[in-house]
Protein backbone atom coordinates (compact mmCIF):
# COMPACT_ATOMS: atom_id res chain seq x y z
CA UNK A 1 0.00 0.00 0.00
CA UNK A 2 1.39 3.37 -0.99
CA UNK A 3 2.03 5.82 1.85
CA UNK A 4 0.41 9.22 1.99
CA UNK A 5 3.72 10.83 2.91
CA UNK A 6 5.51 9.29 -0.06
CA UNK A 7 2.74 10.38 -2.42
CA UNK A 8 2.71 13.90 -0.98
CA UNK A 9 6.47 14.26 -1.37
CA UNK A 10 6.39 12.84 -4.87
CA UNK A 11 3.57 15.20 -5.83
CA UNK A 12 5.66 18.15 -4.66
CA UNK A 13 8.66 16.90 -6.64
CA UNK A 14 6.55 16.57 -9.79
CA UNK A 15 5.05 20.04 -9.43
CA UNK A 16 8.52 21.53 -8.99
CA UNK A 17 9.34 20.46 -12.54
CA UNK A 18 6.87 23.03 -13.88
CA UNK A 19 5.11 20.64 -16.24
CA UNK A 20 1.70 20.63 -14.57
CA UNK A 21 -0.23 23.92 -14.55
CA UNK A 22 -2.25 24.88 -11.49
CA UNK A 23 -5.46 24.73 -13.50
CA UNK A 24 -4.90 21.03 -14.22
CA UNK A 25 -3.87 20.05 -10.70
CA UNK A 26 -7.37 19.17 -9.38
CA UNK A 27 -7.89 16.82 -12.32
CA UNK A 28 -4.58 15.10 -11.71
CA UNK A 29 -5.40 14.72 -8.02
CA UNK A 30 -8.57 12.90 -9.09
CA UNK A 31 -6.60 10.78 -11.56
CA UNK A 32 -4.03 9.70 -8.98
CA UNK A 33 -6.70 9.01 -6.37
CA UNK A 34 -8.61 6.79 -8.81
CA UNK A 35 -5.41 5.04 -9.82
CA UNK A 36 -4.56 4.23 -6.22
CA UNK A 37 -8.08 2.96 -5.54
CA UNK A 38 -8.31 0.84 -8.68
CA UNK A 39 -4.77 -0.51 -8.43
CA UNK A 40 -5.54 -3.26 -5.93
CA UNK A 41 -8.12 -4.89 -8.17
CA UNK A 42 -6.93 -3.90 -11.65
CA UNK A 43 -3.11 -3.95 -11.34
CA UNK A 44 -2.85 -0.87 -13.55
CA UNK A 45 0.81 0.03 -13.02
CA UNK A 46 3.86 -1.64 -11.56
CA UNK A 47 3.30 -1.77 -7.78
CA UNK A 48 6.80 -0.49 -7.07
CA UNK A 49 6.09 2.71 -9.01
CA UNK A 50 2.94 3.68 -7.13
CA UNK A 51 4.68 5.73 -4.44
CA UNK A 52 6.27 7.72 -7.27
CA UNK A 53 3.24 7.95 -9.54
CA UNK A 54 3.48 11.74 -9.84
CA UNK A 55 7.06 11.81 -11.11
CA UNK A 56 7.29 8.35 -12.65
CA UNK A 57 4.01 8.51 -14.57
CA UNK A 58 2.26 11.89 -14.51
CA UNK A 59 5.19 14.28 -14.99
CA UNK A 60 7.00 11.76 -17.18
CA UNK A 61 4.00 11.85 -19.53
CA UNK A 62 3.42 15.61 -19.26
CA UNK A 63 6.90 16.36 -20.57
CA UNK A 64 5.84 15.14 -24.03
CA UNK A 65 3.41 17.99 -24.66
CA UNK A 66 6.04 20.74 -25.12
CA UNK A 67 7.71 18.56 -27.76
CA UNK A 68 4.72 19.07 -30.09
CA UNK A 69 2.87 22.10 -28.72
CA UNK A 70 0.88 22.82 -31.89
CA UNK A 71 -0.21 19.23 -32.56
CA UNK A 72 -3.97 18.83 -32.79
CA UNK A 73 -4.39 15.09 -33.10
CA UNK A 74 -2.53 12.66 -30.87
CA UNK A 75 -2.81 8.88 -30.94
CA UNK A 76 -1.45 6.94 -27.97
CA UNK A 77 -1.10 3.24 -28.69
CA UNK A 78 -1.15 0.69 -25.89
CA UNK A 79 -2.07 3.42 -23.44
CA UNK A 80 -2.40 1.13 -20.40
CA UNK A 81 -3.44 3.20 -17.40
CA UNK A 82 -3.38 6.37 -19.50
CA UNK A 83 0.30 7.22 -19.69
CA UNK A 84 0.96 9.34 -21.61
CA UNK A 85 -2.34 9.71 -23.49
CA UNK A 86 -4.75 10.51 -20.68
CA UNK A 87 -2.26 12.91 -19.09
CA UNK A 88 -2.07 14.75 -22.41
CA UNK A 89 -5.87 14.77 -22.68
CA UNK A 90 -6.13 16.46 -19.29
CA UNK A 91 -3.50 19.03 -20.20
CA UNK A 92 -5.31 19.78 -23.47
CA UNK A 93 -8.80 20.17 -22.00
CA UNK A 94 -8.75 23.85 -22.90
CA UNK A 95 -8.03 23.09 -26.56
CA UNK A 96 -11.34 22.05 -28.19
CA UNK A 97 -9.53 21.77 -31.53
CA UNK A 98 -7.47 18.83 -30.23
CA UNK A 99 -8.25 15.13 -30.47
CA UNK A 100 -6.64 12.59 -28.16
CA UNK A 101 -7.15 8.95 -29.10
CA UNK A 102 -6.20 6.16 -26.69
CA UNK A 103 -5.94 2.57 -27.92
CA UNK A 104 -5.94 -0.21 -25.31
CA UNK A 105 -6.80 -3.89 -25.70
CA UNK A 106 -7.31 -4.66 -21.99
CA UNK A 107 -10.98 -4.18 -21.12
CA UNK A 108 -10.29 -3.58 -17.42
CA UNK A 109 -7.87 -0.79 -18.25
CA UNK A 110 -10.37 0.69 -20.69
CA UNK A 111 -12.95 0.80 -17.90
CA UNK A 112 -10.46 2.70 -15.76
CA UNK A 113 -9.63 5.10 -18.59
CA UNK A 114 -13.31 5.87 -19.09
CA UNK A 115 -13.79 6.47 -15.36
CA UNK A 116 -10.89 8.91 -15.20
CA UNK A 117 -11.95 10.67 -18.39
CA UNK A 118 -15.46 11.09 -17.01
CA UNK A 119 -14.35 12.32 -13.57
CA UNK A 120 -11.69 14.73 -14.84
CA UNK A 121 -13.46 16.09 -17.90
CA UNK A 122 -10.67 14.93 -20.18
CA UNK A 123 -11.90 14.68 -23.74
CA UNK A 124 -10.13 11.45 -24.61
CA UNK A 125 -11.53 9.08 -27.20
CA UNK A 126 -10.95 5.58 -25.86
CA UNK A 127 -10.78 2.69 -28.30
CA UNK A 128 -10.91 -0.85 -26.93
CA UNK A 129 -9.18 -3.36 -29.15
CA UNK A 130 -6.00 -4.31 -30.94
CA UNK A 131 -3.75 -1.56 -32.22
CA UNK A 132 -3.53 -3.20 -35.65
CA UNK A 133 -7.32 -3.19 -35.97
CA UNK A 134 -8.07 0.30 -34.67
CA UNK A 135 -5.19 2.45 -35.87
CA UNK A 136 -6.11 2.31 -39.59
CA UNK A 137 -9.61 3.60 -38.78
CA UNK A 138 -8.41 6.79 -37.13
CA UNK A 139 -6.99 8.52 -40.20
CA UNK A 140 -3.98 10.80 -40.23
CA UNK A 141 -2.55 12.30 -37.06
CA UNK A 142 0.01 14.83 -35.93
CA UNK A 143 1.62 12.65 -33.27
CA UNK A 144 1.73 8.96 -32.48
CA UNK A 145 3.13 8.03 -29.10
CA UNK A 146 3.69 4.96 -26.97
CA UNK A 147 5.28 4.48 -23.59
CA UNK A 148 6.66 1.22 -22.17
CA UNK A 149 4.91 -0.76 -24.89
CA UNK A 150 7.47 -2.38 -27.20
CA UNK A 151 10.96 -2.01 -28.70
CA UNK A 152 11.38 0.85 -31.15
CA UNK A 153 11.42 -1.32 -34.26
CA UNK A 154 8.00 -2.72 -33.33
CA UNK A 155 6.62 0.75 -32.65
CA UNK A 156 7.82 1.90 -36.07
CA UNK A 157 6.14 -1.08 -37.71
CA UNK A 158 2.86 -0.29 -35.93
CA UNK A 159 2.99 3.41 -36.74
CA UNK A 160 4.59 3.33 -40.18
CA UNK A 161 1.51 4.48 -42.11
CA UNK A 162 1.10 7.52 -39.87
CA UNK A 163 4.81 8.32 -39.87
CA UNK A 164 4.83 8.21 -43.66
CA UNK A 165 1.95 10.68 -43.91
CA UNK A 166 3.24 13.52 -41.77
CA UNK A 167 2.91 12.35 -38.18
CA UNK A 168 5.84 12.45 -35.83
CA UNK A 169 6.54 9.69 -33.34
CA UNK A 170 7.31 10.60 -29.74
CA UNK A 171 8.57 7.57 -27.86
CA UNK A 172 9.89 7.77 -24.28
CA UNK A 173 12.69 5.26 -23.85
CA UNK A 174 15.29 4.17 -21.32
CA UNK A 175 18.99 3.49 -21.35
CA UNK A 176 18.63 0.83 -24.06
CA UNK A 177 17.59 3.35 -26.72
CA UNK A 178 20.85 3.16 -28.66
CA UNK A 179 20.56 -0.61 -28.90
CA UNK A 180 16.94 -0.28 -30.05
CA UNK A 181 17.97 2.24 -32.71
CA UNK A 182 20.68 -0.11 -33.96
CA UNK A 183 18.14 -2.89 -34.41
CA UNK A 184 15.59 -0.56 -36.00
CA UNK A 185 18.16 0.77 -38.47
CA UNK A 186 18.40 -2.69 -40.01
CA UNK A 187 14.86 -2.31 -41.34
CA UNK A 188 14.24 1.44 -41.47
CA UNK A 189 15.79 4.71 -42.56
CA UNK A 190 14.87 6.92 -39.62
CA UNK A 191 15.07 10.69 -39.32
CA UNK A 192 15.09 11.20 -35.57
CA UNK A 193 16.55 13.15 -32.73
CA UNK A 194 16.82 12.45 -29.03
CA UNK A 195 16.03 14.70 -26.08
CA UNK A 196 16.79 13.88 -22.45
CA UNK A 197 14.00 13.09 -20.05
CA UNK A 198 13.46 15.69 -17.35
CA UNK A 199 12.09 13.10 -14.93
CA UNK A 200 14.57 10.24 -15.30
CA UNK A 201 18.35 10.71 -15.58
CA UNK A 202 18.57 7.51 -17.63
CA UNK A 203 15.55 8.28 -19.78
CA UNK A 204 15.55 9.67 -23.30
CA UNK A 205 12.77 10.58 -25.68
CA UNK A 206 13.13 9.53 -29.30
CA UNK A 207 11.36 11.86 -31.72
CA UNK A 208 10.89 10.30 -35.16
CA UNK A 209 10.20 12.86 -37.89
CA UNK A 210 10.42 10.73 -41.01
CA UNK A 211 10.48 7.02 -41.71
CA UNK A 212 11.25 4.94 -44.77
CA UNK A 213 11.54 1.20 -44.98
CA UNK A 214 14.69 -0.18 -46.61
CA UNK A 215 14.00 -0.96 -50.24
CA UNK A 216 10.97 1.35 -50.35
CA UNK A 217 10.65 4.25 -52.75
CA UNK A 218 8.01 5.86 -50.55
CA UNK A 219 8.78 8.75 -48.21
From TrEMBL:
<dbReference type="InterPro" id="IPR003682">
    <property type="entry name" value="rRNA_ssu_MeTfrase_G"/>
</dbReference>
<protein>
    <recommendedName>
        <fullName>Ribosomal RNA small subunit methyltransferase G</fullName>
        <ecNumber>2.1.1.170</ecNumber>
    </recommendedName>
</protein>
<keyword id="KW-0489">Methyltransferase</keyword>
<dbReference type="GO" id="GO:0005829">
    <property type="term" value="C:cytosol"/>
</dbReference>
<keyword id="KW-0963">Cytoplasm</keyword>
<feature type="binding site">
    <location>
        <begin position="131"/>
        <end position="132"/>
    </location>
    <ligand>
        <name>S-adenosyl-L-methionine</name>
    </ligand>
</feature>
<dbReference type="InterPro" id="IPR029063">
    <property type="entry name" value="SAM-dependent_MTases_sf"/>
</dbReference>
<feature type="binding site">
    <location>
        <position position="147"/>
    </location>
    <ligand>
        <name>S-adenosyl-L-methionine</name>
    </ligand>
</feature>
<feature type="binding site">
    <location>
        <position position="83"/>
    </location>
    <ligand>
        <name>S-adenosyl-L-methionine</name>
    </ligand>
</feature>
<keyword id="KW-0698">rRNA processing</keyword>
<comment type="similarity">
    <text>Belongs to the methyltransferase superfamily. RNA methyltransferase RsmG family.</text>
</comment>
<keyword id="KW-0949">S-adenosyl-L-methionine</keyword>
<keyword id="KW-0808">Transferase</keyword>
<dbReference type="GO" id="GO:0070043">
    <property type="term" value="F:rRNA (guanine-N7-)-methyltransferase activity"/>
</dbReference>
<feature type="binding site">
    <location>
        <position position="78"/>
    </location>
    <ligand>
        <name>S-adenosyl-L-methionine</name>
    </ligand>
</feature>
<dbReference type="Pfam" id="PF02527">
    <property type="entry name" value="GidB"/>
</dbReference>
<comment type="function">
    <text>Specifically methylates the N7 position of guanine in position 527 of 16S rRNA.</text>
</comment>
